[in-house]
Amino acid sequence: MIIHRTLALLGLALATACAGHDDSTHRSPNTLESGGSRLEPVTPAEELHATILDVRTEGELCPPWTADQDHNGLPDNISVSAAGSVDILGGAAVQPGATTTTTTSAEPSCSVTLELEVPEGYQLGIPFTIWRGFSGGTAGSVDLVRSYAFEGGEASAPRTSSNLTNDFEILDGAVSSTYSPTCSGTQRVRVNATLTARGSTTEKLQLDKVELLTQWRYGTEWRQGCSPAVLVIAPAGAADEWCEGRQHRACATGLTCEFNQAHLTTDGDPAEGACVDVSEVVPAAGVHQSCGGLRDIPCASGTSCWHKTQQLADARWLGNCIGDPGNLPLDPCHTGVPALECAAPLACWDRNGVCVEATGRVDSPCGEPDLPVCASSLYCNSISGRCTAPQGGAGDPCDSPEYPVCASPIFCENGVCKDPRSHLNEPCGTAECIPQLSCSAGFCRAQ
What we know:
With 447 residues, this protein is mainly beta. It has 3 domains: 7-28 and 236-276, no CATH class; 38-232, Jelly Rolls; 390-447, no CATH class. It contains 2 helices and 30 strands. It has helices spanning 11-19, 310-314, and strands at 38-39, 51-58, 66-69, 77-81, 91-95, 101-102, 109-117, 122-124, 128-135, 142-150, 159-161, 166-172, 188-199, 204-213, 222-224, 230-232, 242-244, 256-258, 272-276, 290-292, 303-306, 318-323, 347-349, 354-356, 379-381, 386-388, 411-413, 416-418, 437-440, 443-446. Strands 3, 4, 5, 6, 9, 12 and 14 form a 7-stranded mixed β-sheet that branches. The two termini are 47 Å apart. 38% of the residues are buried.
């Protein structure tokens, strides 16, 4: 439901970006609550992950889910869903689909348990977890409480989110000092993540997706060794390597973390950048290539360096070179900095802020002053903002500009809309009669 939020919700992500623009202001990675030393791992930190062997779910907020594994050479790559699949590197994704459920129990919950195999010589922290869903209640009517634990260990202190309305996304990073019990001679462990809804029992609450990410780079803490154990970090990034992100990775001396608006994240989720030498002179960039940024990369003639917001431009994030005016479909227009126009024959679709080919035909954008009216026999659908054809009836052509869709339960067969229901004097009982008729003595008769 929400993967991308509006740029007004930059929040911590932008604050993090600004902090990385000066070599002297790099923040150190998060430390254990109890302190502790650090060590560059034998296995590169970016590659550290646990192998996911099994995923199980339980609870009213967890609709029936099925597990599909598609390793693709990555044994930690798994998706769990009811509709489609989601591949998450280094983690599990649980996606029940779009079924809104009215809660009935006093404290409905969803519990996800992963069976994992942890690399020898390491301890895994609670996986970085993301909960996404929808709350139809008023702000403060429902509290979502999360707890985490490894099997045989103590549960973490509960975390609570309140004032959730409409789409929500909750990110749970490092969870206290809880680590896998892999110093006891076994590398196979189970970890549980549970979300419980407390408050009004009459509000609609929908859980769309749960992600549990075991890979270090995606925000999960790891320790190397047992006695003593040291927190895993990555060495400072070299030129063109990633920086900041959830692990707040620093750049090597002489390099600075540069951020790209193409990698803008949701509110509260630090973006990753790339380590660069700000004194580097970069040639002019072509259409749709990166521009601006800390190195002030210019754009080729006939294009302008465009940013989604003035805030990103002021923070010196990388933008994109866009034709001025925009001459390619989906070029931005009437939004961002600078606010560009579209070159004919394209027109700006303000609804989405992009240049489009508007012809007035089926599926063409419509309903705005700069867009053409829909052709005769078509109408402008106010929901989609596109020219829509009336649905075809029995005998009407289909799969054509005039009638691209047949009205249900009519279906398209060989270019003609076919009604599966019985007509006058045709047998009924197993088949339904068309609306003007009724089934009498096994045949469709006039009412």
